[in-house]
Amino acid sequence: MFPAKIDVVAALHSRLPELERERLAYLLTFRNGILTILAAIVGTAASLLTGMPEVVAVTGVVAAVAAIVMVVRMRRHYAAYREHFKQLIVRGAVRELVELCRLPEETPAYRYTWTYHPDARISDAHIDNCLLFNERIDEVSGEDLIQGRLGLTDFELSELELVRIEHSNRSKGPTSTRHVTVFEGVLFVADFHKSFQGITLLLANGWMGTSGFFNKLSNNLTNLFAKTKMVNIDLEHPEFNRHFDTNTSDEVEARYLLSPNFIERVLAFKSWHDEKVEFAFVGSRMYVAISTRASFFEPSVRRTTQQQLEQIYEELLFFFSLIEHFDLNTRIWSKS
After folding, report:
1. Cα 220 vs. chain centroid, distance in angstroms?
2. Phi-psi region of 148 (alpha: psi -120 to 50; beta: other; left: phi over 0)
3. pLDDT tens across 9-62, in order?
4. Is-above-0.90 flag for pTM?
5. If both were cysteines, with which of 95, 170, 202, 211 could 244 make a disulfide (CB 3.0 to 4.6 Å apart)?
6. CA 77 to each of CA 30, 38, 66, 215, 301: distance values in angstroms, whole numbers, following the listed order
7. Which SS3 state, helix, strand or coil, does residue 299 take?
8. Selection from 331, 261, 252, 325 nearest residue 288 by Cα
9. What is the β-pairing status of strands 139-151 and 111-117?
10. Using an 8 Å Cβ cutoff, are 165 and 140 in contact?
């Protein structure tokens, strides 16, 4: 069980006034910056009315310099505020949620550990091995890497953006470049320390198309599991089959993993999240790719620091609760 929101807020309450002052100071910098830029635009426009090139040139240069200085100042101020926010609020909330967590049926082997790296992301190995990203990936970016152990389950997650770059050559005119988002959201990984014999993928129904599962199979499995034969199976649950295509290299293991209880948990989780969610069981890990354009764990200067802390609590609880929601610590994956 994770600590209540009121307890996490109370634990971090002494740090909130300092950050609130920084937020208000940034808002002042932002307001002054906007006013300076508007004044520069108005001044330049007014100089045009004089009809004197020298006045227009001097005014334009002064206005441009003033605008650039203010933009740089606003960016630096926000960067400092954001870094402080990540360290005080996000790191503090991760610490309180993990260290105060107590899961059901706890044993002496249970551990509660965590690390937080605001500028790091999940490794390329996880991106490749999960087999959930079927298209060519040219650029990878991400942030807010959280790693640790809850009970018996090692986990990690981060925001992630995967991009494919397309170049089109025109017979007349320059070459155009287009950035196509392959995935934007959060990748969550849980390690069971027990290798699956096969590969099982739960792919969102309705997302097959020309870049769907069968291209994924040819692109990824050719490199990683060249001799693996995947089959598509239907489970005895119409609603589950409506949401997910189940593809596996070991039908017996897949049906064992996807027990009626686990299926209900997957459907319950899907009901909380309207966008695409996909699962993979590969090696010793369960991967959950949660598509969303929402940016997690970021400061919002329009909301008070306490309101932001409460939102960060809800966001972290959503991801940490995956371990408890899917009952991962019971080790139902082991047939021994």
Report:
1. 22
2. left
3. 999 999 999 999 999 999 998 888 888 878 777 777 777 767 677 766 777 777
4. no
5. 202
6. 9, 20, 16, 46, 12
7. coil
8. 325
9. antiparallel
10. no
